[in-house]
Write a structure and sequence with these properties.
The chain is α/β, with parallel strands linked by helices and 332 residues long. The protein has helices at 4-10, 27-40, 74-83, 102-107, 138-149, 157-170, 181-191, 197-205, 210-222, 239-244, 290-297, 315-329; strands at 16-21, 45-50, 68-69, 86-90, 112-117, 128-131, 224-227, 232-237, 267-273, 278-284, 301-302, 306-311. The protein has two domains: 4-205, inorganic pyrophosphatase (n-terminal core) (Alpha-Beta Complex); 210-329, Roll (Diaminopimelate Epimerase, Chain A, domain 1). It is globular and about 60 Å long.
């Protein structure tokens, strides 16, 4: 990390700090933001600001009650951003991913900007950055970052819970290509810091609503398209389903992975209808780069095996476009 000594010197005195992450934050976004919050807040004035609401089931994360949803606290958020001495941008590579915060952050020209992220092709102008696309998660990078700031640092139980949450969710419980020796070693180290992995698993996976489970069953039985001939599986979530099952932020998390359990499905796509656009989530097996497909066709990007994008077409037209793309890709 270039300029680390200057950053360490900058953080010696009390600072106004804003930590932010991408819209509708997932486990890695919330975990990395709150791990850093729990590390910094005893010395500095720290505020975590999410551009949008975040899933209720992250309420177990230490410090979660201190997070502001910009859409609920726009005035206070704008003041905090304007007064910030340093802004940490976590788990996103493009300032456009934090709308509507982006313009307010750009307006604060005096604040130092730090990016910590593991997505491809970063587009953020920073004073300091820690960027590694081979990292399992941004939480893994936060773990490294804390030791770069203080080589004698030992994570507290609070920090350990946050970091483990991000590693666990971004590796799909250590089952996907993001899993590495380092992510497993960090998890082992966190056990020595008071981490209770059963507690975290229960909060994430055994703390849901009946409506969500019925929604998943409906999606798999009625709204899944499998095209083994071209190696793809598609799940559609439209506005009617969102209303029928009272979907909440985070309820579709992980749904996209189900088609990948089928032998000849190489790429899974979740199509989610939102008020003005169609949001797309892609997952793939092996060496298939859905990042390239999202970047070239759907104004998106992310990781090789996990990326997102958007479409301004109808659901039916979006499905046709996806099928056309993968017919030409010839995955099988």
């Amino acid at each position: 990390m270039e300029g680390l000594d200057a950053l360490k010197d900058f953080l010696q005195a009390r600072k106004n700090i804003v930590i932010t992450t991408h819209q509708k934050p997932d486990g890695d976004a919330m975990g990395s933001s709150l791990a850093l919050f729990n590390y910094l807040h005893e010395v500095h004035n720290v505020q975590v600001i999410s551009p949008t609401e975040f899933p209720h089931y992250f309420g177990y994360l230490p410090g979660c009650d201190e997070v502001w949803n910009y859409l609920e606290n726009p005035n206070l958020s704008q003041i905090a951003i304007a007064e910030a001495d340093i802004i940490f941008c976590l788990d996103f590579n493009d300032i456009g991913r934090i709308e509507p915060l982006d313009e307010h952050i750009k307006a604060n020209t005096k604040a130092k900007v730090v990016m910590i992220d593991h997505h491809l092709h970063p587009k953020i102008n920073t004073d300091w950055s820690l960027h590694d696309v081979k990292a399992s998660s941004t939480c893994e990078l936060i773990y490294r970052f804390l030791y770069l700031l203080d080589e004698k640092y030992t994570p507290t139980k609070e920090v350990a819970v946050c970091i483990y949450t991000g590693i666990l969710t971004d590796t799909a419980s250590f089952s996907n290509g993001a899993t590495s020796q380092q992510s497993l070693q960090i998890t082992a180290n966190l056990l020595d810091c008071g981490l209770n992995i059963i507690y975290v698993q229960e909060q994430l996976n055994q703390n849901g609503r009946e409506e969500k489970l019925r929604f998943i069953g409906n999606a798999l039985s009625r709204n899944m398209i499998i095209r083994e001939d071209i190696g793809i599986g598609i799940i559609v979530v439209d506005k009617k389903d969102a209303y029928r099952f009272n979907l909440q932020t985070g309820d579709t998390e992980g749904l996209v992975n189900y088609p990948l359990t089928i032998k000849d499905v190489k790429v899974a796509i979740l199509i989610k209808q939102e008020p003005k656009i169609i949001k797309l989530s892609f997952r793939s097996k092996g060496e298939i780069s859905v990042e390239k497909i999202c970047r070239e066709n759907f104004e998106g990007g992310g990781h090789r095996n996990a990326s997102g994008g958007r479409s301004f077409l109808s659901i039916e037209e979006t499905i046709d476009k996806i099928i056309d793309i993968f017919t030409k890709e010839k995955l099988v």
